[in-house]
Design goal:
Largest sheet: 6 strands, mixed
Strand content: 5-15%
CATH class of the largest domain: Mainly Alpha
Bound molecules: adenosine-5'-triphosphate
Main location: membrane
Radius of gyration: 36 Å
Protein name: ATP-binding cassette subfamily B protein
Structural class: alpha/beta
Shape: elongated
CATH superfamily of the largest domain: ABC transporter type 1, transmembrane domain
Distance between the termini: 50 Å
CATH topology of the largest domain: ABC transporter transmembrane region fold
Number of strands: 10
Keywords: ATP-binding, Cell membrane, Membrane, Nucleotide-binding, Transmembrane, Transmembrane helix, Transport
GO cellular component, one term: plasma membrane
Number of helices: 22
Organism: Chiayiivirga flava
Number of domains: 2
Length: 622
């Protein structure tokens, strides 16, 4: 596993430079948006560019209207009637200007709606594409990565990012649009009174810095609290899901869960509230600096107009421009610091994508031999789970012969499942190596290896899919091959379970969705075992997926399994010795090491741990 270190220890505040450094993430982000749909991206940018130029035009036409009205306004006492004014053509110019303003207003509205439409389409596509990329990348990661708490936090943040970042897209485009509008207003102001712009910047800078600061604090808070937020989600899920409802009721856990939720949530809320309060306070102080700037400018403009330097139209245009510029700059600056804040979150997404799996296929990988001739040889294999002090297995040496049925026996925690995971390369050994037909397992193509080694785990997944699909997951390419699925079901005794369901093979299973039917533990297991038959791999491994079967079923299932997988290499894990004794050889594990290996008769004769455990169980049945 190679998880890049988190950008920094979570609790230290970020420097301004670092905050803006996160803006580098915008490039890959914009590229991702562009790749989602070049057409829609271009469309929204063009529409926004057009719309950006309208405000200054409208304000300028407004100024012309006022100047025209002032010009036309009669001295008090002379009354015009409309018809005369109309027919004489005096109002023509005014009408033209009002008509123009009206047209601009309509166009602006239409453009605004089009932008919203295009943005919403683009952002939906973006979220879809980002989610798919997330799933694709997650699928390449090592199992070890998933068990790492730091990575789980990062994955959680990345998952949130894919949903939240579509707003960032609209915001960035909105920023670009506002920037164009600002430039157009600034050109207008520059022509009349360049010093106004300088005043504007001085008034706005403090507000901007304040915004940037609080955004970074907000991010730090969210970052530091990721583990707690994950716990909150977990408690909420446990407290309100079908999977746990039964136990929550029986053990009356609701008060415990609610209390735990409340404590955590309140701490998070308090921290958030403090920050939001400070932000609101400083925000209003700094914003009044901006307002002060505006009124200073307004007073000065009014005075210049009284003095005759500007017309009334100029005054409205300048004051309007100044006000709009101020609003725009304010939102641009705060938007910019928000973008910088959001770009910090993108760190999580992109650092998640940077995690490279270690278990992967080499460039010069070998194809898996077909058939496997010699089998697997464990050479002094040791493995320790990440972060664990104890070796889960160590010094493993044995030969799993091609074509044999091997049973793994041992007490809880002896290392049986770990051994199977190593065989399927869900983990690589930390010590020693595993050979397949004389070559290191790591030399082979990983996809082919996984295709050749089919494992049904004790904690197999109960998919909320149809019965047929639940079997088809064993070989998903065969999901439309109903005949093969039914054959596999017959072999594992799942067929009779499925036939009793109201919708047979098309019956949705599980309780999560409407129409779902749940099965008993043993019935689920029969379905899971059908996956192994459908997979039809060279090596078939059943890791105790039969624990919930009744004694007769387990006996029958294993007897069939042995017959049907005749000639294949099979590994069985079971705590029932009636099953275990059917295997050709039995491997007894204790504390992560092999202590006995031989046939049932040999091991009984040796009178070791196997004989002891066997007799213990046989005792119980007498
Ligand atoms: N994901 C994991 N992370 C850390 N330690 C683990 C993990 N899985 C198993 N272990 C530890 O590794 C050791 C071997 O576990 P393993 O699951 O291989 O035992 P097992 O023989 O299959 O047990 P059981 O009969 O209970 O299924 C145990 O001490 C267990 O606590």
């Amino acid at each position: 596993m190679s998880v890049p270190p988190p950008a920094r220890p979570a609790s230290t505040p970020r420097s301004l430079r670092e905050r803006f450094g996160a803006l580098r993430n915008l490039r890959p982000f914009l590229r991702q948006v562009w790749d989602t749909s070049p057409g829609l991206t271009l469309a929204t940018l063009t529409l926004r560019l057009l719309r950006a130029l309208l405000p200054v035009l409208m304000l300028y036409v407004g100024k012309l209207i006022i100047d025209e009205v002032v010009l036309l306004a009669q001295p008090a006492g002379t009354v015009w009637n409309l018809r005369d004014a109309w027919t004489s053509g005096t109002l023509d110019h005014l009408l033209l200007l009002v008509g123009l303003e009206f047209a601009l207003a309509i166009v602006s509205d239409i453009l605004g709606r089009l932008v919203t439409l295009v943005d919403s389409l683009l952002s939906e596509l973006f979220v879809n594409a980002a989610s798919i990329r997330l799933m694709q990348h997650a699928a390449t990661l090592d199992l070890e990565d998933f068990e790492d708490a730091d990575l789980q936090d990062r994955l959680e943040r990345a998952r949130r990012q894919t949903m939240g970042r579509s707003q960032l897209m609209s915001q960035l485009f909105g920023q670009a649009q506002d920037a164009v509008t600002v430039i157009s207003f600034a050109i207008g102001l520059l022509a009349y009174a360049p010093w106004l712009i300088a005043l504007l910047l001085v008034a706005l800078l403090p507000a901007f810095l304040g915004e940037a600061h609080f955004n970074a604090l907000n991010y730090s808070l969210n970052y530091v609290w990721t583990p707690e937020r994950r716990e909150l989600d977990y408690i909420r899920q446990t407290g309100a899901s079908v999977e746990s409802a039964k136990e929550v009721k029986i053990f009356a856990l609701q008060d415990f869960l609610i209390q735990r939720y409340r404590e955590l949530a309140e701490k998070f809320y308090a921290a958030n509230r403090r920050l939001a309060g400070r932000r609101a306070l400083w925000g209003s102080v700094l914003a009044s600096v901006g307002t002060l700037g505006y009124y200073a400018a307004y007073g000065y403009l009014a005075w210049r107009t009284v003095r005759g330097d500007f017309t009334i139209g100029d005054l409205t245009f300048l004051a309007g421009s100044f006000r709009r510029l101020r609003q725009l700059l304010e939102s641009l600056l705060s938007g910019f610091s928000q973008v910088a804040g959001q770009a910090l979150y993108l760190d999580d997404l992109y650092s998640f994508f940077e995690i490279a799996p270690e278990i992967a296929t080499r460039d010069d990988a070998l194809p898996i031999p077909e058939p496997i001739r010699d089998g697997f040889v464990f050479e002094n294999v040791g493995f320790r789970y990440p972060g664990a002090e104890r070796w889960a297995v160590r010094g493993l040496r044995f030969h799993l012969r091609a074509g044999e049925a091997l049973a793994l026996v041992g007490e809880n925690g002896a290392g049986k499942t770990t051994l199977v995971k190593l065989l399927a390369r869900l983990y690589d050994p930390d010590e020693g190596r595993i050979l397949l037909d004389g070559r290191d397992l790591r030399d082979y193509d990983l996809d082919q290896l996984r295709a050749a080694v089919g494992v049904i785990f004790q904690d197999f997944v109960r998919y909320n899919l149809t019965a047929a699909e639940n079997i088809a997951v064993g070989r998903i390419a065969a999901r439309d091959d109903r005949a093969a699925i039914e054959r596999a079901a017959e072999r594992s005794l799942a067929d009779e379970v499925i036939r009793r369901l109201p919708q047979g093979y098309d019956q949705p299973l599980g309780r999560r969705f409407r129409n779902g039917v749940d099965l008993s533990g043993g019935e689920w297991q029969k379905l899971a075992i059908a996956r192994a038959y459908l997979r039809d791999a060279q090596v078939m491994i059943l890791d105790e997926p039969t624990a919930a079967l009744d004694a007769r079923s387990e006996f029958e299932v294993f007897e069939r399994f042995k017959d049907l997988s005749e000639g294949k290499t099979t590994v069985l894990i079971s705590h029932r010795f009636s099953t275990v004794r059917m295997a050709d050889r039995i491997l007894v594990l204790k504390d992560g090491g092999v202590i006995e290996l031989g046939s049932h008769a040999e091991l009984l004769a040796a009178d070791g741990l196997y004989a002891e455990l066997f007799n213990l169980q046989a005792e119980g049945y007498r």
